[in-house]
Each structure stands twice: as structure tokens, then as C-alpha cells.
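I'll show a sample.
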Amino acid sequence: MGRTARLAWVAIVIGFIGGALIIETTRLTTRGPMIFVPYAAMLVALLGYFRATRAFSFGQRFNATFGSFMLASLMTYVYLSVVVNPHDLQLPLWANVWPVLVMIGIGAITSSVVAAASQPRRQT
């Protein structure tokens, strides 16, 4: 398995585990800010992986982080829209699209930060 394929699998697995943890957090607690703990754990796990491997470009690190973030967010959004509140699907299209667009923006910002923070240091 090539390095890029391994990176894709790591991103998918971390995104899936993160999504499952976010769903469990929404099921087990009513404290809203607790939702940030699984997101932070995902980003820290990816940051650690990038720092350990040290050989991916900024774009590869950004795409892996963004993919994981969006996979977890979309898993949570589908769970909340289908299981918790199925009436959300009867809302107009824009009412279901804008939360996804907000998550894309947040995901792009956090992915940029993680990709920049995991930049390998040059040996002097």
C-alpha cells in the first residue's frame, strides 16, 4: 500500500471513529460544548500522525483533515436529521443545506490550521 493510500485510509478511519464518538456524545449528554471534545480528539490524532510521518505535502495534509472532519460532520448531520428529528427532511432545501455549508467553512479553517501546524521542520 502506498503512502497516499495509507493516508486516505487513516483519514477515513479517524473520520468514522470521530463521527461515531460525536453521535454518542449527542446521545449521552445534553451539554452542548461537549461536542467539541471528539472533534478536538480527531484533529489532535491527525496532527500527531502528520508529525510522525513528516512527508506529506500541505495539500495532502489539508485534504486528509478536511475529509475526516466532513465525514464525521456528515455522519452526525444524517443521524440528527434522520433518527433524532426526521421532520427536518420536510423543511425546504436551503434549511438543510446551510448547516452543511457552515461545516464546510469551519472544516476548511480547522484543516488549514492542522495542515500548517503539522508542517515538518527543516533540518539545518
